[in-house]
Specification:
Order of helices and strands of chain B: HHHHHH
CATH superfamily of one domain in chain B: NADH-ubiquinone/plastoquinone oxidoreductase chain 6, subunit NuoJ
Shape of chain B: globular
CATH architecture of one domain in chain B: Up-down Bundle
Radius of gyration of chain B: 21 Å
Shape of chain C: globular
Strand order of the largest sheet of chain C: 1-2
Structural class of chain C: mainly alpha
Number of strands of chain B: 0
Distance between the termini of chain C: 95 Å
CATH topology of one domain in chain B: Four Helix Bundle (Hemerythrin (Met), subunit A)
Strand content of chain C: under 5%
Number of strands of chain C: 2
Oligomer: heterotrimer
Chains: A mainly alpha (100), B mainly alpha (177), C mainly alpha (638)
């Protein structure tokens, strides 16, 4: 039998990779995808725990997470498009109008 | 047998994730993410989450990733706009941070779920994770969140239209007119 | 009636408020009426008070001032012969001068401010004189100093006047510092600052001739030196002549400068407990009298002569105090108020008539054109030089006699006093002759406009003239057949103090006659000398001036005391201040304050740096925070 630990480890690793992606990427789209990666890692953890506790409620939770991910991706990408139209760049370092 | 499947899927997912981060062309990153999603779907199946696995493929890989793909194609980034972090110090710092995070979470998880983490899964009914069961929950116990998500989607649609909608006469800059 | 005496100082305060707040809206006539009326009411009440007092002592607590633990001080009045006499003199002379001012200041545009300040001065002076404790007296003391500053610098747009006001206030402050220390010592030793308690306990608390008694008295006397312009703090009084002439008459002749004498007389019990202090007082008084008289002989400004004369006469009063002849000092204070005020007002009349001419060398022959002024001025001159029978004769003679005959007096004091009397005669008659006799030395066009002053100015002159004549009669000495009612009236006040004096030797009447005759004789010599030089125009004057040119210049320049002070005290302080300003204030203090501002700005700017709009920075820090937090959780879970 596959211990729970394996799944949790995978989830953790994927999450950490997502964090790394957010920090070191200069492309906004890549950052968004890293965020999606983190969400997926969380989903994995949810499903694992659902299996071990026999509670399908977590599946509903995952469903909701899907919806949220979708909404966030949609809005985020439209923001990227809007920014790209203005500044012709996807480099997140160039988005610094707030800088003093 | 299960273990083999798990390790293959996990390995694929991990490798694809790493690839996602360190690719310079965004299109490659998108495709890597799709691979990750498929691998995860396999693992979900292994965890008796059939409904979710199906949804993962249909919604996530099938819709959201397509959206990403469309945007990447729309932006049509040229060579000089491919970006990834070049400076080694910042790169290693980020990696270090992520690595530390992984280690820490593992440690915590180990401490908390000390009991049963290394045990096998308990037996569950055949219905577990099936469409009927999850659907029942969605429309019964968790009806309100379900309805709220539809509103959330509505908001997202509106937002996306407003933000990215084409202005009359405006084009995408960057092309030599 | 006596329970209404608190009104005496209050009337002029009311006048100050009315004229100060509403003076501009009243007519000149209204302002003058208010000012004079208030002082007249004070005078009236003082007169009634002295009649009802009948020589006793009356104490009235008007309101509590400080009540703190065992220390309690009230706004209280002590009415005894001494304070009654002072109040009467102050209000009487002040009233006459107020009336005079309505004429003298008639063309001044700040008429109401003048009368407001003048009333305020009378208020403070009365507080000073009627106080029943040291603290209240000090309040009045400071208050008259303030008014003196305000009135000296009345025409403040003139630099010289503003500077003179400052000088007066600052020099006074030096003395006041000593005075304050003295009061603190008194409180420390006695636990109280109320006159009756302190003076009653004095013989028990202070050892006769002891260090504490001497210290207290010398410190108190320091205050008197400042306020009454004795050496070495006399330098402010001649400069104070920058103020309007009635101010000089009231404040710097008749009243404020006499506050020091009053204070010493009031503390007679303390001073007689310290022979050293008494001697110091006498020596300074005598020295000042002589010193100032010498300077008066060569001054060319009519008011300066009178200023030095005032310093000299004040010296006489302190000499009297120093030989424990306190009632003689107060007597001279009163008569001096009459004739010195008259002299100043007369000088004011002359100045007014000649359109602001102060220089004696440019006057002359005024007795034809200013008859009333001339006559009253002559009366005052005769009084101050001690013409037998007149006020000054009686009071000055009593001082001279006591300086010789008192148990703490001596021949030396008498000699100094007599020489001063001679010089006084000389410079006063010089003044009279230069101003009123001879041919006019002023320009023709001024001559056409010279006329006698209006009634508002001449009436007070006449009244003061009469007082200068008869004022001495209430103190007519026994040796000439009088009863010296004045001295007897004041006796109970000083009786206790006199008790501490060593027994004196008895001097016969013949000695007294001899000394009296000698002093009159010397005054006569002074008169003749002045006559020969200024009427007969003796060439000896020019020759003497040439022979002793250096000496003449020395005296003319006031012995260079001002220059000495400037070099030794003023310049170092100014220099030090400038240094402090440049190096301490600018660099250290401004630096610190600006530095704090700069620091805040820099911290703020440093604080904005994280918010560089650098998204990945935010993410990194965020993650770092999570890492740290988790690490801490692991640590605590271990």
């Amino acid at each position: 039998m596959i211990p729970l630990a394996n799944y949790l480890l995978l989830s953790t690793v994927l999450f950490g990779l997502g964090v790394i992606g957010v920090i070191i990427s200069r492309n906004i789209i890549t950052i968004l995808m890293s965020v999606e990666l983190m969400l997926n890692a969380a989903n994995l953890a949810l499903i694992s725990f659902a299996r071990w506790h026999g509670d399908p409620g977590a599946h509903v939770f995952v469903f909701i997470v899907f919806v949220v991910a979708a909404a966030e991706a949609a809005v985020g990408l439209s923001l990227v498009i809007a920014i790209f139209r203005r500044k012709n760049t996807v480099n997140v370092d160039d988005l610094n109008i707030l800088k003093r | 047998m299960d273990l083999v499947v798990f390790w293959i899927a996990a390995g694929v997912a991990g490798a694809a994730a790493v690839n996602l981060i360190f690719q310079s062309k965004p299109i490659n990153s998108v495709l890597s993410l799709v691979v990750v999603l498929f691998a995860l779907a396999v693992i979900y199946l292994q965890l008796s989450a059939e409904f979710v696995a199906a949804l993962q493929i249909i919604i996530y890989a099938g819709a959201i990733m397509v959206l990403f793909l469309f945007v990447v194609m729309l932006l049509n980034l040229q060579k000089d706009q491919f970006l990834s972090e070049r400076r080694p110090t910042l790169r290693s710092f980020g990696v270090l941070l992520g690595g530390t995070l992984i280690i820490e979470i593992s440690l915590i998880a180990r401490t908390f779920a000390a009991r049963g983490v290394h045990a096998g899964a308990p037996v569950v009914s055949d219905d577990f994770g099936g469409v009927r069961q999850v659907g029942h929950l969605l429309f019964d116990k968790y009806l309100l969140p379900f309805e709220l998500t539809s509103i959330l989607l509505l908001i997202a649609v509106a937002g996306a239209l407003v933000l990215a909608g084409r202005r009359p006469g405006a084009g995408i800059k960057g092309k030599s007119e | 009636m006596l329970n209404t005496i608190w009104l005496i100082p209050l009337f002029p305060l009311l006048g100050y408020i009315i004229n100060g707040l509403f003076g501009r809206r009243l007519t000149r006539y209204g302002v003058g009426v208010v000012g004079c009326l208030m002082v007249f009411l004070s005078f009236l009440f003082s007169l009634l008070a002295i009649l009802f007092l009948r020589g006793g002592e009356y104490r009235l607590a008007v309101a509590d001032w400080v009540v703190s633990g065992t220390f309690s001080v009230s706004f209280g009045i002590l009415l005894d012969p001494l304070s009654a006499v002072m109040a009467l003199t102050v209000t009487g002379v002040a009233f006459l001068i107020h009336v005079y001012s309505t004429g003298y200041m008639a063309h001044d545009e700040h008429f109401s401010r003048y009368f407001a300040y003048l009333n305020l001065f009378v208020f403070f002076m009365l507080v000073l004189v009627l106080a029943d404790n040291f603290l209240l007296l000090y309040m009045g003391w400071e208050g008259v100093g303030l008014c003196s500053y305000l009135l000296i610098g009345f025409w403040f747009h003139k630099d010289s006047a503003a500077n003179a006001g400052k000088k007066a206030f600052i020099v006074n402050r030096v003395g006041d510092f000593g005075f304050a220390l003295g009061i603190m010592l008194i409180f420390w030793q006695f636990g109280s600052v109320n006159f009756p308690e302190v003076f009653a306990a004095a013989p028990q608390v202070l050892d006769f001739g002891g260090g504490m008694a001497t210290a207290i008295c010398l410190l108190l006397f320091l205050g008197a030196i400042g306020k009454s312009a004795q050496i070495p703090l006399h330098v402010w009084l001649p400069d104070a002549m920058e103020g309007p002439t009635p101010v000089s008459a009231l404040i710097h002749a008749a009243t404020m400068v006499t506050a020091g004498v009053y204070m010493v007389a009031r503390c007679a019990t303390l001073f007689t407990l310290s022979p050293i202090a008494l001697t110091v007082v006498a020596i300074i008084g005598a020295a000042t009298a002589l010193f100032a008289a010498t300077m008066a002989t060569v001054q060319n400004d009519i008011k300066r002569v009178l200023a030095y004369s005032t310093i000299s006469q004040l010296g006489y009063m302190f000499l009297a105090c120093g030989v424990a002849a306190f009632s003689a000092a107060i007597f001279h204070l009163m008569t001096h108020a009459f004739f010195k005020a008259l002299l100043f007002l007369g000088a004011g009349s002359v100045i007014h008539a000649l359109h602001e001419e102060h220089d004696l060398r440019k006057m002359g022959g005024l007795r034809r054109y200013l008859p009333a002024t001339f006559l009253t001025f002559t009366a005052a001159t005769l009084a101050i030089t001690g013409f037998p029978g007149l006020a000054g004769f009686v009071s000055k003679d009593e001082i001279l006699w006591n300086s010789f005959a008192s148990p703490v007096g001596g021949l030396g004091f008498w000699i100094v006093g007599v020489i001063t009397a001679g010089l006084t005669a000389f410079y006063m008659f010089r003044l009279l002759f230069l101003a009123f006799y001879g041919r006019p030395r002023y320009a023709e066009e001024t001559a056409a406009r010279v006329q006698e002053s209006p009634m508002s100015m001449t009436a007070p002159l006449i009244i003061l003239g009469i007082l200068s004549f008869v004022g001495g009669w209430i103190g007519w000495p026994k040796v000439l057949g009088g009863g010296n009612s004045f001295g007897h009236y004041l006796e109970p006040v000083f009786a206790k103090a006199k008790g501490f004096l060593p027994p004196g030797s008895h001097h016969g009447h013949s000695t007294e006659y001899l000394l009296m005759g000698l002093s009159v004789g010397i005054a006569l010599v002074g008169f003749i000398w002045a006559f020969r030089w200024y009427i007969r125009r003796s060439p000896a004057r020019e020759k003497l001036k040439e022979r002793f040119g250096a000496l003449y210049r020395l005296v003319l320049n006031k012995y260079y005391v001002d220059e000495l002070y400037h070099a030794v005290i003023v310049s170092p302080i100014v220099g030090g201040s400038r240094w402090l300003w440049k190096y301490f204030d600018d660099l250290v203090i401004d630096g610190a304050v600006n530095g704090i501002g700069r620091l805040v700005r820099q911290v703020g700017q440093a604080g904005t740096r994280p918010q560089a709009g650098y998204f990945r920075g935010y993410a990194a820090v965020f993650s770092l925070g999570c890492v740290l937090l988790l690490g801490w959780i692991i640590y605590t879970l271990r």
